[in-house]
Fold this sequence. Notes:
Elements: H1 5-28, H2 33-37, H3 40-44, H4 52-77, H5 82-104, H6 106-115, H7 122-136, H8 138-141, H9 147-164, H10 166-173, H11 176-208
Helix pairs in contact: 4-5, 4-11, 5-6, 5-7, 9-11
Amino acid sequence: xxxxxxxxxxxxxxxxxxxxxxxxxxxxxxxxxxxxxxxxxxxxxxxxxxxxxxxxxxxxxxxxxxxxxxxxxxxxxxxxxxxxxxxxxxxxxxxxxxxxxxxxxxxxxxxxxxxxxxxxxxxxxxxxxxxxxxxxxxxxxxxxxxxxxxxxxxxxxxxxxxxxxxxxxxxxxxxxxxxxxxxxxxxxxxxxxxxxxxxxxxxxxxxxxxx
Length: 211
């Protein structure tokens, strides 16, 4: 597929505007520009293993959103079922939101630091978004092997459960409390990616037909 000059221009203008906004926000926060462009580990002078599990989780969120967007576009181009296209588009957008939350620490820090509201308020919204998507596209989901998705939701629920009672658990488990909480979250992301990658590949395989 050939990329038009107009598309290239739009992409690069968008990238430049985003970069300008990020530079403006960095300077407004009183930070040096090196804080924006250099690797966080280098800026903080931390060990290379710091944040490794979180970074891998972000990569998995990104991979999931990307393959869902690509599959939705593939379904559109071949004139496929609107419900199938809607399913992949909806959960690609939702996964992108979860990616942004993880990457920018929206529920962990950003909301508290900017609007003074605990990020826990987002959890019910995310849950409702999943329930709505499952209800809206139930007929399409029923034709997939949704066991990894159910497992993912179970792991996410366990992670949030540990977070809800973190103070008493901290007294009992010490530093292992965060390993349990974020370990469940990591396993949930892995299961989420497993489900959507498998479902997308299945859909793309049906498009190609038998070899």
